Amino acid sequence: MRRVLSPAARPDDDTAPGRPGRSGRSGRSGRSGRSDDQERERERERSQDREHRDGHGARETLRTEFPFELPRGYVDGSGTVHRSGVMRLATARDELIPLRDDRVRENAAYLSVVLIARVVSRIGTVEDIHPGVIEDLFASDLAFLQDFYRRINAEGHTRAAVTCPSCQESFAVDLAGGGRPGES
Question: What is the pTM of this model?
């Protein structure tokens, strides 16, 4: 009589306990005595280390556009107030081209108007931002945009350190935030 072994008892079966079988899978790997999960984890870590050394891993993305909220807002020709906008990081060209502008040559203070007009991509629904639009801003809004420009281009962030006038506690405020100070 011929004896038939169950699939779990066959010595050449992939699923036989304690045997690597044809697939190479078992609870243990041959050389190190580590489980397959541990080996996979170590290989993943080695791969990440190589990527980190080679600079080919997951790369940090550079934020190039920053939303803002004007303190007063730009009033267009029809009387609509536009407060929210977007400013992009400045390039070297953005800082050089205004120096050739005749208005800037005549009045150095006009440099910030031309420069801000180049890097603001939108104020409310107004997308055609030019020096005339920036000239029509309230002085407090122009001062805000000049400070915002300095923060994102020189400091790399939009946070400002402030101190509470009542309790004197210091904290950071993100100037790019969605709401205006005092609003909830």
Answer: 0.56
